[in-house]
Amino acid sequence: MTGSGPSVIAGNGGARRGNGAEPVLSLRGVSLSFGLDDRRRPVLSDVSFDVAEGEFLCVIGPSGCGKTTLLRLIAGLLSPSSGEIIYQGRPITGPSRDRAIVFQDYSKALLPWRTVKGNIALSLEACGVASSRRDERIGELLAKTGLGHAAHQHPNQLSGGMQQRVQIARSLAQEPRLLLMDEPFGALDAITRQTLQDEVVRLAAETHTTVVFITHDLEEAIYLGDRVIALASNPGHVAAMIEIGIPRPRSQLETREDPRFLAHRHRLFGLLQGHSR
Amino acid sequence: MKRRIRGASIPALLVALWEVGGRAGALPSDTFSRPSDILVAGARAFGDGSILLATWQTVEAALVGFAVAAIAGVLCGAVLGLAPRLERVVGPTVDALRPIPSIALMPLALLMFGFGLNMEASVVAFACVWPVLLVTIAAVRGIEPRLLELASTLEMPFGSSLRRIILPAALARIVVGLRVAVGISLVVAITVEIVVNPRGLGYGMIIASQSLRPDLMYAQLLWLGLLGWGLNAALSAAARRWPGAQA
């Protein structure tokens, strides 16, 4: 797994973030507009924040506020119109294997002609892992993501939750330092979503991966995040940045009843209401 | 099985009527040889190997032309499909060249290559490249954008993403273009042989016709039909075995 640098003890509450070390990712005054000249439409305006090594950062906002655009900027699939995005001390110029994305629409992001194993192998092939070592790595990832029994099935034979597990396994296969997740559980049923939430937290901690997690679900953001950034729309900008500070490991039942959880929920709910038209 | 027998009943009846009509003198024997004579002529042509040589010459030209068109069409189509700006530059030229009837290039091909394989294959390739190119462009454009983004976040070099993602994702639609092209390749090869090139089944048929041997001509025609059917079946089987389609 990624032998990451300084830091990060999972299950240690808000203290997961590095001790004043350089942030992994840093956005400085990032703005983006689509279209040309008089049809120019600003999507994001002056977005700035840092993400520390090992942090689990959630970004929430109403639909159309530019959350996904923000994630695509960090991935390097888009370039900002102004401002800069610094990753590991260098401005991002394009996509990198070091920053994996888990897309929202899992059914479109998997190769339908490859089995679960083959889909995971894709990342390993791209990373140049020798074919003799691939099976072993795939085996580990399948076990980790609870896909062991599905190795030889094709994506269309799997439920949505299982397909999303495949995407997560494929992303982890490229051993990213930064995992970008775009509303990964938005289309899943409540039970599956809760299971996967806990697994993602566990996997991120085990592999010391920094996570930027986009969601429109308030409770999901508070439950998962070390910190939550609320975006407001037209154009998208940072409305609030909240330290969650609820210790880990968290529990689907008790954490959601924690007074701090409820307080954050109150505050964020008010913020989002106020800003969504 | 029953369905097959039922489906074969009409052709069988027609052949029987043809045979009876021929023997009764109701059909002109200089255009309608009797099926029995056709079988005999076919058997002789197989016996002396002439039809096999002609078949090889025709198939060789058709396949060489098809292969050139398939490789060029799929590669150029993939590039143009991924680069809409380039496509806007190249598109008008393609649209200008495409309507030229490939058969009209025979005189030019004859000047360039003389009689023989190259001349025939070049005309076949010209005819076949357009359907492959256009279908590939459309197929590559229809690929799910997530998959292309995946390729770029994995930093795959173009060749690798072409082989692992783009071609397999577009394959089902590209195969449609390839099948159309296989059909065209045989049509064009035979036409070139009938019109100018003194080799292959087309040439054999026109010679049989001109020397008043309708039986031999029919035998070759029948054989040609089987050949086209076989080529198409072979291509379908090959498409199912595409490396990216499994794994």
Structure characterization notes:
The complex is a heterodimer of chains A (277) and B (247). Chain A is α/β, with parallel strands linked by helices. Chain A is 34% helix and 22% strand. Chain A has helices at residues 67-75, 106-109, 116-126, 131-144, 160-173, 190-206, 218-224, 259-275; strands at residues 25-34, 41-51, 56-60, 82-87, 90-91, 99-102, 178-182, 210-215, 227-232, 237-243. In chain A, the strands form 2 sheets. In chain A, strands 6-7-8-3-9-10 form a 6-stranded mixed beta sheet, with helices on both faces. A 4-stranded antiparallel beta sheet of chain A has the order 2-1-4-5, covered by helices on one side. Chain A is globular. With 247 residues, chain B is mainly alpha-helical. Chain B has helices at residues 2-23, 35-47, 50-82, 84-97, 106-113, 117-141, 145-153, 158-195, 200-210, 214-240. The chains are: A alpha/beta (277), B mainly alpha (247). The A-B interface holds A 75-77, 94-97, 99-101, 103, 105, 108-109, 111, 113-115, 118, 121-123, 125-127, 174 and B 144, 146-147, 149-150, 152-156, 160, 164-165, 168-169, 244-247.
Helix-strand layout with pairing:
The complex is a heterodimer of chains A (277) and B (247).
Chain A: E1 25-34, E2 41-51, E3 56-60, H1 67-75, E4 82-87, E5 90-91, E6 99-102, H2 106-109, H3 116-126, H4 131-144, H5 160-173, E7 178-182, H6 190-206, E8 210-215, H7 218-224, E9 227-232, E10 237-243, H8 259-275
Parallel strand pairs in A: 3-8, 3-9, 6-7, 7-8
Antiparallel strand pairs in A: 1-2, 1-4, 4-5, 9-10
Chain B: H1 2-23, H2 35-47, H3 50-82, H4 84-97, H5 106-113, H6 117-141, H7 145-153, H8 158-195, H9 200-210, H10 214-240
Helix pairs in contact in B: 2-10, 3-6, 3-8, 3-9, 5-6, 6-8, 8-9, 8-10, 9-10
